[in-house]
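Internal QA ticket QA-208
Title: Verify multi-chain structure generation after dependency bump
Assignee: T.L.

Test input:
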Amino acid sequence: MAARPLSSVPWPVAAALVVALALQLAWHAGHGGERAAAEPLPR
Amino acid sequence: MLPAVLTPMLTIARYTVLEALRNRLVWLLLLIVLAAVGISGFLGAVALTESRQVQAALLAAGLRFAAVFLMVVFVVTSMLREANDKGVELLLALALPRAAYLLGKLCGFAALALLPALLFGALCLFFAPWDQCLLWGVSLVCELWIAAAFSLMCVLSFNQPLPALAATFGFYLLARAIGSLQLIAHGPFNSHAASQRLIGAALDVIAAVLPRLDQFTRTDWLVYHGGDAAALAGIAVQTVLCVALLTAVALFDLYRKRF
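Actual output:
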């Protein structure tokens, strides 16, 4: 069964998806490196 | 406008909770509590040292996995039963947006997640101070919300129980292990070959969209009492971001779906 066209998605839903993805990536960029630096593996 | 969407949403949420209670979820939770107390008590008695800590750790780990398992299975089976009964078509034929249906279901599952978290968190009071139990319980709620949102997204996309359950447990396992995988990939013992760097980069990309579930509901809070408000703040932010992203993906998929 074919999906409905992209235009059937309301713009607030598409905007929410983009914003949520951007926030997720921004948060990860801010905290991902911090954790890796805080817990180095023992040599 | 808002109350017109809120009223059906709350009605759908209410009936979702009612369905879970009529499926004898409370009895199942009590059975899990009894089994977990029994098994952890037995293994704690067998332990040579730190038997109380061993018992607390085993109990917390068992309860955490059981809560996630129950939540995911309930979300998948409940959504599929409704789809097979043509309940979704009936609801979507009414004058309400698809978002109200999905958000209503999600609110129902979110309310339901409070039940195991409250019960299991209260049980941990036998082993740890109240503030650590509270932290553990709140973190379990957050973890259950993420698991529910992901399984809801999967079941709407796949429409089959097996792929939805497999994808959800795969996601859960990966989100629990991604921190360790990244540490191994970027560790000092690795060679700097191109394949190793490629694997490390691929893991970084995957980790960017995954919640760090290894930081959630940690057993060491109950054993060594090291949890604090900063840990909870990080968990809360991750939960909000992840649930928002998963809900947006599920909504996008639901709006494109042809019934």
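Spot checks passed. The longest helix of chain A spans residues 11-38.
Status: verified.
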